[in-house]
Amino acid sequence: MDARIQQVISLMEDDLCRNLTLCERAQVVNLTASHLCRLFKAEMGVSPSRYLKLLRIGEAKNLLETTFLNIKQIMIKVGVNDESHFVRDFKMVYGTTPAQYRGTFRSTLKGDHLVRSKSANDNQK
Known about the structure:
Blueprint (H helix, E strand, L loop, with lengths): L2 H12 L7 H7 L4 H12 L3 H19 L4 H8 L4 H12 L3 H27 L1
Helix pairs in contact: 2-3, 4-5, 4-6, 4-7
């Protein structure tokens, strides 16, 4: 992978809340915005802005699974300001809203825990 693209990706991953423009990202790696966009898309298959959005949505999914933060708190942690866009984008990627995802994830965990508990009890007999 092109080192400049790796550097831009690291920049995104290191601080999801940082809202650098495409021009600012391009300046970091001494490219024009259009050249960065072309290079990035050729390497990653998506534009830099789409890639950042996917990073944010992925981190939001992780926070939904591992924390008790509410949706607004998660949005702030991943650098998203607009709840309707966040919910729409999350649903586009995962097929469900963040709240529904968390509910399904938690009920799956509870169900899995019950199955494990039952089998552990059966083994003790």
